[in-house]
Amino acid sequence: MSGIPLYWKYPFLLRLEDVISNPYTVLPVLIGSPDAPLYEKTLSYLKLIVEKTSVPQDRSFYNSDHEVIIFHSLGLVSKAIKEPQLLTRTAVAYSKRAGFFFRSENDELLISIARKIGISAAKTFQPPRLLRVFEDEKGKRQYGWLSLSYGISLTSFVRLVAGRLEQDSSYNLSSQIVHEGFVYVDRKRFARLLEEACFHYILKTYEDLQTPSADFLSEIQPLITEVEKYLENVKWWKRSFVKDRGVGEEVYGVVEEAFPPCMKKILSIMKTGGNPSHEERFNLAAFLVNIGYSVEDVLAVFRTTADFDEKIARYQVEHIAGLRGSRRKYTPYSCDRMKSVGACPIQEYCKGGKHPLSVYKHNLKLLKQSAEKPEAGNSSSTGKTQ
Questions:
Q1: 228: part of which helix (H) or strand (E)?
Q2: What is the pTM of this model?
């Protein structure tokens, strides 16, 4: 892969201004209308990101400038339609692609990329080693030494692990070799941490993009309209859990404000591009199907996760909903069990019961009572004046 242009693989390393002078004047000519040269390609990238959390890798024609333009265009379009979760999904897709290429890059380039995106790292010449146990092809236990050839500053390590990787206990600081302000890791783990750093760097890059002006938006309106139409067709909008209905109406309970803390925690992990644990995913799916979500609605929720697989997810959700297997509809864990697996973020118990569904029904009732309560001073008096 050494022959692939660097910025084709990692377009987020360049600014839009590095490939286009006066980008907000030129960009509408490149992506703004169906006959623009990069209009269809930008749409195809967005669709694959939404459907597969992947970025196309058409190697028949390497054009780094096009890759950089499309990368930034996706950010601008997402900001134009006010979709921060689409920005997160795009960041996941590009960082995953970067992680794929990291596997075959030389050490010098990996260190260079790390430093370019703000990670203090170095290659160690006399690396510490760990004795590891593994099984050979015949299942026989073998022993070998694992060289921890990369050092990453303690502050960088802690900052990266504090996000999406905090669910993985193998990244706990107590499990690492730390010496003179550096955490030592092997190449595989360094590449994973670098991928995580790319994710955060891409989000920051998108955050720093100039807010699109009204004139710019009008010039790329055909693209925006097509993107919105596509997102509507794939039910992207249903990933939001707050329905546009009054709390006082008879609804199936789909009101995020009433969700118990455990479910809010899982949603927060997903909305920030994280990967909830298997138990957290099960409990969220079971919770949603029990408050009125259809299988398609639940799939729309999980479609925003980085490792979403339509076939596997559908089978699991249908099983939880009682449409497969034993035909038993599952409910989420009790509060005690949620606490035991670390899925509950509070020490005490919520009001309303010791089960997420009970707590949720209690919260819904309180919200409904609050909505029906007349405002102070607006109640009418029917009595006679004395």
A1: helix 221-233
A2: 0.64
